[in-house]
Design a protein that fits this description.
This protein is α/β, with parallel strands linked by helices. It has 2 helices and 8 strands; from the N terminus they run βαββββαβββ.
Length: 131
């Protein structure tokens, strides 16, 4: 096998402070490092999803909006594995984040739902038992 996992997912945000708060305080991802790249007038925030996977959150001046939703060419959405989807949905609602109705994966029978980050990026919760 050539690949054995995902190292990181890169996200460009429109408002760095709002997105930083969302991913760290609301979703609870741990900051690994935060860098300001003066030559690009850009922040880069490395966040720990789990011990193997990171999110890179970038700020850039005036990034273009997502062209269409949800079927734009490119990354469709980012899905997070959760052990208790009801608990996570309640936590998101307490932070004024709207989740869609729960769905059932027709192939696995697992429960999932979608919500949005501050830039309207579709994010998914996918319920699986802890390994």
């Amino acid at each position: 096998m050539l690949f054995f996992g995902i190292h990181h997912i890169a996200i460009i945000c429109s408002d760095y402070g709002v997105s930083k708060r969302f991913y760290t305080e609301v979703l609870g991802f741990k900051v690994i490092r935060e860098s300001y790249r003066e030559h690009r007038n850009s922040y880069k925030l490395d966040l720990e999803v789990d011990r193997y996977t990171q999110i890179e959150l970038f700020s850039f001046d005036s990034p273009p909006s997502r062209p269409s939703n949800p079927e734009a060419c490119g990354l469709r959405h980012l899905a997070f594995r959760v052990n208790n989807i009801d608990f996570v949905i309640d936590h998101l609602r307490e932070n004024d984040i709207v989740c869609e109705s729960l769905r059932i994966d027709e192939y696995t029978g697992k429960r999932y739902t979608f919500f949005r980050d501050p830039d309207n990026l579709p994010l998914e919760l996918y319920e699986e038992a802890l390994p």
